[in-house]
Amino acid sequence: MAGSSAELHEDPDKLSEATVDRHRAIVSLMEELEAVDWYDQRVEATNDESLAELLAHNRDEEKEHAAMNLEWLRRRDAGFDEQLRTYLFTDRPLLAVEEASDGGDAADTTPDAPSSPAGLSGLGIGGLKGTDSL
After folding, report:
1. Closest by alpha carbon to 82, among 97, 67, 61, 68?
2. Which of 41, 72, 73 minimizes the C-alpha distance to 58?
3. Are 117 and 91 in contact (CB under 8 A)?
């Protein structure tokens, strides 16, 4: 048995290829999120503005990689897909979303329109819904 989440915890001979691939994606997601954290710290710690810009750029690339891994996982795990559809892209308090999804009003589980992180604005993919030009 392995001692780290990056390693398989069970005998690989007893695991399906799909389970091993999901494990690979989960480990990659963990690594990408760890890299985001490390870059965030480096951006804040440096006094060199040009280095901070470079590190922030690298950090944002890691966010892209993390999002791609998360989407790959969502497409292959119906339960994960359901949870992500419930909790992502809503402005409602997360515990209120949970309460509604656990037996409250089913209409309350419909996510709100996606919101931009604090301080950001612009046209997102959600803003294009309903346009005929897509």
Report:
1. 97
2. 41
3. no
Distance, in Å, from the CA atom of 98 to the CA atom of 102, rounded to the nearest integer, reads: 6
Residues 6 or more apart whose CB falls under 8 angstroms from that of 91 comprise 112, 113, 115
3-class DSSP assignment, residue 13: helix
Q: Is the pLDDT of residue 74 over 50?
A: yes
- % of residues, the chain, pLDDT over 90: 70
Measure CA 127 to chain center: 20
Structure tokens at 110: 């419909």
Identity of residue 8: L
| DSSP letters for 40-82 | HHHHHH---HHHHHHHHHHHHHHHHHHHHHHHHHHHH-HHHHH
